[in-house]
Amino acid sequence: MKLKLACADFTFPLLPHEQALDLIAMLGFQGVDIGLFENRGHLQPSTELKNVSKSGPKLARKLTDRGLKLADMFLIPGDAFDQLAPNHPDARIRRRARDQFERVVDYTIEAGGKHVGALPGVPWPGETRAESLRRSSEELAWRAARARANGLVYSIEPHIGSVAPSPRAAKILVEMTPGLTLTLDYTHFTAVGIPDAEIEPLVRLASHFHCRGGCKGRLQSSFKANTIDYARVLRVMKRTGYAGYIGVEYVWIDWQHCNETDNVSETIRFRDFLRDADRA
Questions:
Q1: pLDDT tier at 40 (50, 70, 90 boundaries)?
Q2: Measured between alpha carbons, how far is residue 44 from residues 17, 22, 97, 172 in Å?
Q3: Cross-strand pairs, 179
Q4: CA separation (Å) from 45 to 26, 42, 111, 224?
Q5: What pLDDT, in 10s, does the model give residues 82-115?
Q6: Which of 139, 197, 223, 277 shows its CA 20 to 30 Å from the CA of 266?
Q7: How distant is the alpha carbon of residue 244 from its chain centre?
Q8: pTM above threshold 0.70
Q9: Architecture of domain 5-279 in CATH?
Q10: C-alpha span between 89 and 79 (Å, rounded)
Q11: Neighbour tally for 5: CB within 10 Å
């Protein structure tokens, strides 16, 4: 396994986008995770997807000029997890979400990317979790097929509040959905007390990986407070043949205490740790 490190542009939301990319390049990262987030972040679906033949090459030039590769195009289509969710009970909204995804695929290609990530959907009131999971699987299989037909890899990130809030649920979702892979972020499981050993089997299902500090009770923590054994994660990646990027993914949002870290310092600490652990 060749170590490929990326950093998220949404780690630095208070900077203009160009300056956030400048900082990521200056910190020596090879790749960048682009957040395509509605109503937050630098780039938003409602504007970027209007004319992808223009906006995609514009993003590609921004990255190329700084020697960066597009590691992942990460789509979050609304302020809440249920907005344009792939498993929305309303078929009309699912069609809108599919249309948006088609444009995200085109946008990613125009921007020079090979990987698209998104969220898996949520459990819906009035139906069983199994029903919500089944509808997610059906829609995510369609997305994975569309991505693959266009030379892209598609993944979903299991997260707090999603239809896949546990390693077991994430594994079930991937295994029942042809072509689906994971963007794996241990912290969503660590925060609720799930040990590394239960999360580790998901590494073989991942095509993208998020790395940041986390501990029980904290979705995002400092390097010092982190309890995740990332050196072991690297060893598992090497053993299982993981070939994707490791994205150092600190965020700065007023949710789950995720605006209480020094993102520049913590990003540097994890960058250096991952480099040293890889050499060791």
A1: confident
A2: 12, 20, 15, 31
A3: none
A4: 27, 10, 14, 35
A5: 999 999 999 999 999 999 999 999 999 999 999 9
A6: 197
A7: 12
A8: yes
A9: Alpha-Beta Barrel (3.20)
A10: 18
A11: 20
